[in-house]
User: Fold these one by one.
Assistant:
Number 1:
Amino acid sequence: MTFTQGSPLPRATFIRASAGTGKTFQLSNRYLRLLLAGQRPDSILASTFTRKAAGEILERVIQRLARAAASSAEATDLAGHLDAQQVERPEFARLLRDLLRRLDRCRISTLDSYYGQLARTYCLELGLPPAWSILDEAKIAEFRSEAIRRTLAEGFAGSSFICWPRAKPNAPSVSSPPTPSRNSTGSSSTARARPGHDSPI
């Protein structure tokens, strides 16, 4: 692709590649091309999956601009990578100054950070509380343990559990104690069936 300063560029570029294949280099090229085309840093979104990768993209952009601003040879080399051979060292120095002045507005972040920012901006429309936040791994484990503890506590508090010992094979059965009855003389007697005999009348 031949780049001409001020020419339109595609609105979005997706790069899918394995680790170590030069994604950060290509993303920084794309970012620098957009700056050369007149885009403000706060109008460019560069997103990736990890915070480390997002930091590497921003670091690479600043380093490459700084080298090009300090050396004509580096400026020529960077212009070649950006297909912008007509751009010289003073222009890269201007881009570097503009970028550093708006560094707090740069949107080079992870995908979840970007979507989190959108959700915080429109939390009322989404029905979210104003002070919501995304939990980290430590907090997730803590809340999961607390939820399990509360669930078990509420279950035991609202139910009666009776644990019976498991009967052993061929062990005599356990029955309720016999109910006493009154005979004609008024004395107490017990009605109990004997094994192999009929129940008493």
Note: The chain is about 45% helix and 5% strand.
Number 2:
Amino acid sequence: MIEPMDGYKVIRESGVAMTSPEGSSMLAALFGDAVGPDDVEVFPFELAATSVLTPHRHTSDMAAWVTEGRMAFGFGEGFADRIELGPGDLIWLRAGEDHAEEVVGHERATMVVAYITRFETEPA
């Protein structure tokens, strides 16, 4: 199920792997039809238990699939709008969307991240 939001979208329990044909179709829908599978870069990202990332933004649209553990993303005033994601959930972030991230619980979290233009991370 897709939860539409202004600067981000959440897809709960997508049931597809990012690197599968279905995952490629989902990424094309998120990034736009002009993007082909060869245009998307994908990399794994791991955070240790209880990790907290300071508020930041990215210079390119990006998508992240949670593959293990639980993550929380904060948005809005004081990052109080909190979205928790678990395995199989995906979040798409528009370039420039200020957010904070943290691992929920006492286990590491892993994600697979995709982007179409190499991005930088800047402080929010």
Note: The mean pLDDT is 83.
Number 3:
Amino acid sequence: MTFSDTITADPITSDTITADTITASGPGTPVVRRAISAILLALVMVVATACGSESESSGPEQPTFEFIIPAGSGDLIEQGEVLDILPRELKTQVGETIQIRNEDDRAHILGPWFVGAGETLRQRFVTVGVFEGACSVHPSGAFTVYVDPSNA
């Protein structure tokens, strides 16, 4: 790589720069790799900070609402049993958390959520809204969550 002998003033330090003081910095050079690494590290730190919360540092918070789908629920529902696992409608507030633990050997749909066999869904509500959809464990076949503003 060649450089011209033109002298240019550095706008930050007001020093002069000559072709003798410039080093090559292409995509594979250490200067560029360090710059890219620094940018990526900063991005990871920003994302990690945005995703975290104070409650995570002291362990998981207790859910406001907790429901368990017992083992064998899918079989019982297929046999016509009516199970009392969760309400048709749930009223909650911003900042509250719902947890649904599926101990069954099959997946279930609960409103807008899919909970696989042996999985646990944990949802903390951060905005006002309505979450609704089909429900494979409620006799009505539907589940709706209303999230109201926080009273805090």
Note: The two ends are 63 Å apart (CA to CA).
